[in-house]
Amino acid sequence: MGGPDLHTHVALRLLLSYHGWLLETHGVMSSPTKTWLALVRIFSGRHPMLFSYQRSLPRQPVPAVQDTVRKYLESVRPVLCEEDFEWISALAREFLKLQASLLQWYLQLKYWWASNYVSDWWEEFVYLRSRNSLMVNSNYYMMAARAGNAVHALLLYRHRLNRQEIFPTLLMGMRPLCSAQYEKIFNTTRIPGVHRDHIHHLRDSRHVAVFHRGRFFRVGTHSQSGLLSPRALEQQFQRILDDPSPACPHEEHLAALTAAPRDMWAQVRKSLKTQAEEALEAVEGAAFFVSLDSEPAGDAAGDTPEPSGDSAASLDAYAHALLAGRGHDRWFDKSFSLIIFSNGKLGLSVEHAWADCPISGHMWEFTLATECFQLGYSADGHCKGHPDPSLPQPQRLHWDLPDKIHLSISLALRGAQALAENIDCHVFPFSHFGKSFIKRCHLSSDSFIQTALQLAHFRDRGRFCLTYESAMTRLFLEGRTETVRSCTREACSFVRAMEHQEKTDPQCLALFRLAVDKHQALLKAAMSGQGVDRHLFALYIVSQFLRLQSPFLDQVHSEQWQLATSQIPVQQMHLFDIHNYPDYVSSGGGFGPADEHGYGVSYIFTGEDTITFHISSKKSSTRTDSHRLGQHIRDALLDVAALFQEGQHLKRRA
What Rg value do the Cα atoms of the chain yield, rounded? Predict the structure, then answer.
């Protein structure tokens, strides 16, 4: 059915191994690339389905170890003093001489038998073996605003996913990305273990788990005639809201266990499984988790369709509520939780181990567009359609909680609340200019923002730091992410020029263009499997398996990312008219900082003229302040734009 058949997937795999198109100047296409595009079109078939290309995707290559070490040293040069750089260079030389060839040999061996030489280890060691709380450390959030339609839209997406009716993502409209991560969006839970967690995925689930005022419910999603209508789902949620029964002792705070350190939760879950197996299975076996918050999103209980009309403080509180909640009102183990606030706003909290942000983002775009524009609402504000009085009441879940669990719940709640209170979220839409202005400057929008972020961070902290930007490697089978190390020598030269009173605007602009070009080269290398970090990570894992000590790899592994960044892509522009309905675009989402004294920064281009930023940091750090960095980002963007003829009307640098 659609896509390449048995006779063509080998030819298509050879074609998809070509990456020359990535390296070409934007807007220019060479003859080989034109020929390649035509052949890909021929071999792809007319109507590819979501998983049509999986057998044809090439495997992620293992880069040459000398190249990786050289690129690594180049990336740390700007953030190290002379003495420290000499020291790490000596460690690198020793590594290349003593351990590199053996470790590389094992990776080459794995390349031949595994689907992807790094992704399974990445999932295992970065996510599943981490013993830290999932809250803030692993989960991320997405913003949006309505329970019946939203749940129905999510289930419609699942139906299309099961039938492979979601069109595979194609770069340039032709180069397919790996779809493997879509398989675990729904019916999936991360189960805690004493030493490592595992991901539990069911083929199907006919219910959602709902949390409201400390009580848990099981709500069926289907009747004999199929998927429940939005109005019928709304009726079920209203029944829960109207149910006056109180939460049982300790039940109210039970979900705080999912925010506890994983070893502790794993031990407690064993008791829970014996004492309250049915309730636990209903939650872990749900299609997804729904939290009906009894409070409005943020500070304001306004009724704007999206947060774009809200005050800054309200947006910050809204982000905080999605990322952390109150520590006991999200089931952090579920692949995602849909959070619906009392003022109709909604959002997602997503567990990170099973997939990366573009996957849940794709689902979220579909949900928002379907909820607003396909399903819609009647004049009285209800979901369209009719209630179904014959539906059974939602099933209240009962937890028989033994006394020994009570103390664990109290401890988990205290830890979760401390984590939640320590996170500082700041969200702001920057609307002086956006993607259209950057296009007119003939530059990559992502590289423009990343270089401006270097200027903002330097002004904030007075120094340069290792910067993590997430790039996808889904050009390859089961590819996940790679790191773009955005703090380059070129970016640092530009920042110093901007802070040097004697440098003219043309000089600064020339250095800015060099920094943007360098970032683009790094991004393309990362996407085509020639990045630094996943290769070094895999070499480190092999060294641990072989008990082979490498001071160089130990040092690389211990590095802290004080600036962790990510762009949230808008992937389905065709779903609705973005110009006439800008309020209905997701405002993106965010994540916690990767370091105690660091920042987490994500951004999304909403429409042509707005960029929404999400910044997080720890209140316990005396060195960071999310609002302060936000102001530096605003100033840096205006100062960079003012270097261009197009942006002369914007604020000049002091």
Answer: 25
This prediction's pTM? 0.93
Residues ≥6 apart with Cβ < 8 Å to 5:
45
Give me the catalytic one of 352, 362, 457, 614. 352
DSSP 8-state assignment for residue 646: G
**What Å distances lie between residue 136 and 190, 322, 353, CA to CA?**
16, 10, 13
Q: Let me know if 535 is a catalytic residue.
A: no
- Residue 138: name the closest of 408, 417, 335, 362 by CA: 335
pLDDT digits (tens, 9 = 90+) for 157-182: 999 999 999 999 998 788 999 999 99
> Which CATH entry fits the domain spanning 431-528+560-647: 3.30.559.10, 3.40.50.2300, 2.60.120.260, 3.40.1050.10?
3.30.559.10
Lowest mean pLDDT among 94-103, 306-315, 602-611: 306-315
Smallest CA-to-CA distance from 134 within 7, 323, 272, 277 is with 323
Q: How many CB atoms lie within 10 A of CB 101?
A: 10
List the one residue out of 405, 329, 335 whose CA is nearest residue 363: 335
Residues 6+ apart with CB under 8 A from 47: 1, 2, 3
Q: Nearest-5° angle of CA 342, CA 292, CA 162?
A: 125
Per DSSP, helices labelled H in 337-376 are 357-369
CA distances from 144 to 136, 287, 307, 352, 366 (A): 19, 20, 7, 19, 12
Which residues lie closer than 8 Å to 346 by C-beta, 6 or more apart?
144, 145, 146, 147, 150, 338, 339, 340
Half-sphere exposure of 283 (CA within 13 A, CB side): 28
pLDDT reading at 308 higher than 50: no
- Strands 563-567 vs 599-606: parallel, antiparallel or unpaired: parallel
Other CB atoms closer than 10 Å to residue 127's CB: what's the count? 18
Superfamily of domain 134-164+185-423 in CATH is Choline/Carnitine o-acyltransferase, domain 2 (3.30.559.70)
Residues 6+ apart with CB under 8 A from 325: 291, 293, 339, 349, 420
The two three-digit tokens of residue 254, written as one number = 């039970």
* Pick from 129-133, 203-207, 522-526: least confident: 129-133
**Please, are residues 487 and 79 in contact by the beta-carbon 8 Å criterion?**
yes
What is the reported pLDDT for 303?
Answer: 37
**Residue written as tokens 């110009």?**
579
pLDDT in tens, 324-335: 999 999 999 999
Question: Which of 227-231, 484-488, 579-583, 620-624 has the least mean pLDDT?
Answer: 579-583
pLDDT given at position 309: 43
Q: How confident is the model at residue 368 (pLDDT cuts 50, 70, 90)?
A: confident
Sequence length of the chain is 654
CB distance 358 to 569 below 8 Å: yes
